[in-house]
Amino acid sequence: MILAVVTLRPGESQDSLLKRFRKKVVKSGILSTVRRKRWFVSKSEQRRMEQKKAVRRLKRRQLKEAE
User: Fold this and answer.
1) Is 51 helix (H, G, I), strand (E, B) or coil?
2) pTM check: above 0.70
């Protein structure tokens, strides 16, 4: 498991420390991994969802090109 560790710099406020920590958490992808692994998804279901995503993405691209 990846841990996001941030140490307090001399003269740094709590707000800026918290801001740096949040950026580090987002960059490491911890939250997205937790959300994704919250429920079990079978391989076939995963493929089906990826297929739907690809279709939506393709439709969006075609719409943008048509404009």
Assistant:
1) helix
2) no
